[in-house]
Automatic annotation (TrEMBL):
Keywords: Disulfide bond
Official protein name in the record: PITH domain-containing protein
Lineage: Eukaryota, Fungi, Dikarya, Ascomycota, Pezizomycotina
SUPFAM superfamilies according to UniProt: Galactose-binding domain-like, Thioredoxin-like
Boundaries of every Thioredoxin domain copy: 1-111
Family listed: Belongs to the thioredoxin family.
Length: 339
């Protein structure tokens, strides 16, 4: 017997996102040949991995009223499209009838499904930050609907930075999918140094190239400096960033004088109210300025205090990859030309 749930209303889908830790949604149409080709494979994954309250596989017919509403909400413009949710937030999208791609993405969730099942489930109403273990990325803030975490398309070997104390971490630390160790202890302190701090002053320059052209929608920065009661001199405590400049499509990292004199794609100033309980600032970008992006430079100009050090625990770049098709016209993808 199939364990796949057919969505008949927008409210039904919203409730499933709240009640199931993981939801895998298949957006399809009856006229779509590639949708029919991959449907048996989707059913096979559903039979293997579905667990009540833990992992739910659903089918959404985009020709129905409910399907049109949900499809529009998540910017579904081609068929088939598979969207994977964790605690109600999009973690991945797969477009087209590509069983190997879909299986690879779902397999990333398999260990999390198994662990969640062993711990008795844990419906989707829990925090988006989650446990930080397994194949699913820890998040300090929810993803905006219709957009995904672009960590998988960051060109890790091409990462660069300036004025960073390199004695305790590697470049990939800042973009790790793991939950920051500081959140596992009270007060933000940790013996495991999985964050970065500036070196000679509070300024930090980060260069992030991508393996694909992307459109950036949101920047999420997590900063968890220790508190004053942790036996450190207040003047030596690292700060959260305050002023940030972002530059796009640079072939390499900028030097500090060049960044000071160059017009930024966007400049951001953060205040105390911008940081949530997990120490994350969710920064909306001017989307029209961040189209066709191949790299970004993130320049932390100053911090929110008098210290000479700034601390960064995690950075998430949120958006989409590739060209987005026009809204209002669903296309099938996967057929050979002429079919």
């Amino acid at each position: 017997m199939s364990k796949t749930i057919t969505i008949s209303s927008r409210e039904q889908f919203s409730e499933l996102l709240k009640s199931s830790s993981i939801v895998v949604a298949d957006f399809y149409a009856d006229w779509c040949g590639p949708c029919k080709q991959i449907a048996p494979f989707f059913e096979q994954l559903s039979r293997q991995l579905s667990q009540p309250g833990v992992a739910t596989f659903v089918k959404i017919n985009t020709e129905t009223e409910a399907g049109k509403q949900v499809g529009a909400e998540y910017a579904v413009t081609s068929l088939p499209t598979f969207i994977l949710f964790r605690h109600g937030s999009v973690v991945e999208q797969v477009r087209g009838s590509d069983p190997r791609r879909l299986q690879a993405v779902v397999e990333q969730l398999a260990s999390d499904i198994e662990k969640a099942g062993q711990s008795g489930g844990g419906g989707g109403s829990s925090s988006a930050s989650g446990s930080g273990s397994g194949g699913l990325a820890w998040r300090g803030a929810d993803l905006p609907r219709g957009y995904t975490d672009l960590s998988d398309v960051i060109n890790i070997p091409g990462l660069d930075w300036s004025n960073v104390d390199e004695s305790v971490f590697s470049k990939r630390t800042l973009y790790s999918r793991e939950k920051p160790s500081a959140l596992n202890k009270s007060g933000g302190a940790s013996d495991s140094k999985d964050w970065i701090e500036s070196d000679t002053d509070e300024q930090v320059m980060l260069y992030v190239p991508f393996n694909a052209t992307v459109k950036l929608h949101t920047l999420q920065i997590t900063s968890l400096p220790p508190t004053e009661d942790e036996d450190e001199d207040e003047d030596e405590l690292p700060m959260r960033p305050k002023t940030i400049k972002i530059f796009t499509n640079r072939p390499h990292i900028l030097d500090f004088s060049e960044a000071e004199d160059t017009q930024a794609t966007q400049e951001i100033e953060l205040g105390e109210d911008d940081w949530n309980k997990d120490g994350t600032a969710n920064i909306g970008l001017r989307f029209v300025r961040f189209q066709n992006v191949t790299s970004v430079v993130i320049f932390v100009v100053d911090g929110d205090g008098d210290s000479e050090k700034v601390r960064l625990d995690r950075i998430r770049l949120i958006g989409e990859t590739g060209e987005k098709r026009e809204m209002g016209k669903l296309e099938k993808i996967g057929d050979e030309p002429g079919e």
